[in-house]
Design brief:
Chain A is built from four helices and one strand; from the N terminus they run βαααα. Chain A has 148 residues and is mostly helical. In chain B, a hairpin with a 7-residue loop joins β3 and β4. Classes of the chains: A mainly alpha (148), B mainly beta (94).
Chain lengths: 148, 94
């Protein structure tokens, strides 16, 4: 090989890179927010109306179960981004990265144990911030969208 | 020869897109902490750049500089590499 030879050498990560997207967390977060709002809007029937109470409890239970599952899914998706996608070099451009993820994961837990529209919105705000950091790192301008 | 680095596994020493000056490997001495360019042991079409961490005979343990354990495909994943797979060594000023 001569002095002028130029070759490329890979300095890549330990897996097949590239298949990360905060959309997975966003969809789960939207489901948490939707279930939270549905739970808050559901009216409790008279305790004398057995069938109506059964339907109410069934519906409320389903909302709670979905909220629980989706909050856990959201936390998982966020942790994958935090621990696998983002690398130490990304902290230079995003010094608040760790705190943003920590707060987002805490909000997932809060949304599981509470029925809080405020915390559900704060979770979505945190996911939007992570969306911006993620696509910023990738050097792409991807608009924040919601399915709902 | 010049080598263009693709990826961040050698961060913070080398950034994605950096170009380093290397000399073709011709059985010269390889030291611990040298940066070497070599053929991936399992993907022969892929050329890699990593730092030598250990040497045992004709086998070398190479590792990326990035402190993130998921940031580098190196001897932690594909094992020790053969000295014969070395293509080039980064040229140092000393």
């Amino acid at each position: 090989m001569s002095e002028e030879t130029i070759i490329e050498a890979e300095a890549h990560c330990d897996g097949p890179c590239g298949v990360y997207d905060p959309a997975s967390a966003r969809i789960a977060g939207e489901a948490v927010q939707s279930m939270t709002n549905k739970m808050l809007a559901l009216s409790c029937p008279s305790t004398d109306d057995g069938p109506a109470m059964a339907a109410y409890l069934n519906t409320m239970s389903r909302y709670a179960a979905i909220k629980e599952d989706e909050a856990q899914t959201c936390k998982h998706e966020l942790l994958v981004l935090w621990t696998d996608f983002f690398k130490p070099q990304h902290l230079e451009a995003n010094p608040g990265l760790h705190d943003t993820f920590w707060q987002a994961a805490k909000l997932c837990s809060a949304c599981k144990v509470e029925v809080s529209a405020i915390h559900a919105q704060e979770l979505m705000d945190a996911i939007e911030a992570i969306h911006s950091m993620f696509w910023g790192v990738k050097g792409r301008e991807i608009s924040w969208i919601r399915a709902s | 020869m010049k080598v263009v680095v693709k990826g961040d596994s050698m961060w913070p020493t080398l950034n994605d897109g950096d170009m380093i000056q290397c000399e073709e490997y011709a059985s010269q001495e390889i030291s611990i902490s040298s940066i070497v360019v070599f053929t991936h042991p399992f993907k022969h079409a892929v050329t890699c750049v990593k730092r030598v961490k250990r040497i045992e005979g004709d086998q070398l343990f190479v590792q990326g500089d990035n402190p993130d354990p998921t940031a580098s495909d190196d001897s932690h994943n594909f094992g020790w590499i053969a000295r014969t797979s070395i293509l080039a060594i980064e040229r140092t000023n000393d």
